């Protein structure tokens, strides 16, 4: 029995050695080609017909990889993506019917604004000391500037370059004083049916002992070159690690926004401008349950009626361990998913950098 058992053990050991040798290969780290493919921002056009995407890819300069920007549109009716602008320095996406806004670097290193439409043509906009607008339409820009530590909204008329300061009215000044947020900033400006509303945020004074002071978010009306009718959205006693996302105003005049505490999922809210109150949105909270693999859906943009959203989703890895992303469209009510296009295969990868993994 002992001899037979020893023989069996020797046989198993030799078999294991053979299997181990047959599976031998490089087990240490090796070089991989890492590509930069990132969709920085997506905006859904107000008419719901197309998306505008700010895409960043790798460009090698002096043996370093930098992000270079391309602006694309995705037309839902044609199911087609189209390049509309190449821009070394990117300003932002602002929709004015069919237009988006970008900047280009010219030979003398000055920055100029260009308006690009979906056909690929562009219009140069000369503005003094250009800065990135928060809103534009056919008549004017709205810019936010910090002038001598004073926050200023400025309306710049496009026809004659006239500058008009947009001042907070007495009620807004009192709100800022009561909330102790003198160094507030304007987060976003939204338009719905010709009405402009802004999102304002401010923190109680910073001190070394309290590096993350309480933070207040509010919404106000822009009317007759005044900031007026301010209403508090939410106060965060401990804002560190909390992300607030504002998507826009729904057709029934409600501001849709979300709060992410530390990590997903998002908690969805609406602010009802008619009833002047914040309400939960359980219909949107359902989005958090649409994936069953442990991931959480994080919308990049909602349709104007908030019935659909788009999101960039990783679906696999290539041989170099780069994530393969798709742009996916979801139905809010049902969770039905549709792939719009594969980012990895459709958009340029650019130059790569070598990483050891």
Given the helix and strand composition, which structural class is it? mainly beta
The helix tally amounts to 4
Summarize the amount of helix as a percent range. 10-25%
The strand order across the widest sheet is 9-10-11-12-16-15-14-13
Large-scale geometry:
globular
Molecular structure report:
The model is unreliable at 1-23 (pLDDT under 50). A hairpin with a 4-residue loop joins strand 17 (242-249) and strand 18 (254-261). The chain is built from four helices and 25 strands. The protein has helices spanning 2-22, 170-179, 282-285, 343-346; strands spanning 31-35, 37-44, 50-61, 64-75, 80-87, 100-105, 111-116, 122-125, 135-136, 140-147, 150-157, 163-168, 185-192, 195-203, 215-223, 226-236, 242-249, 254-261, 266-272, 277-280, 301-302, 308-317, 323-331, 337-342, 352-356. The chain has a domain at 241-292. By secondary structure, the protein is mainly beta. Helices cover 11% and strands 51% of the residues. Strands 9-10-11-12-16-15-14-13 form an eight-stranded mixed β-sheet. A four-stranded antiparallel β-sheet has the order 2-3-4-5, with no helix packed on it. It has a four-stranded antiparallel β-sheet with strand order 17-18-19-20.
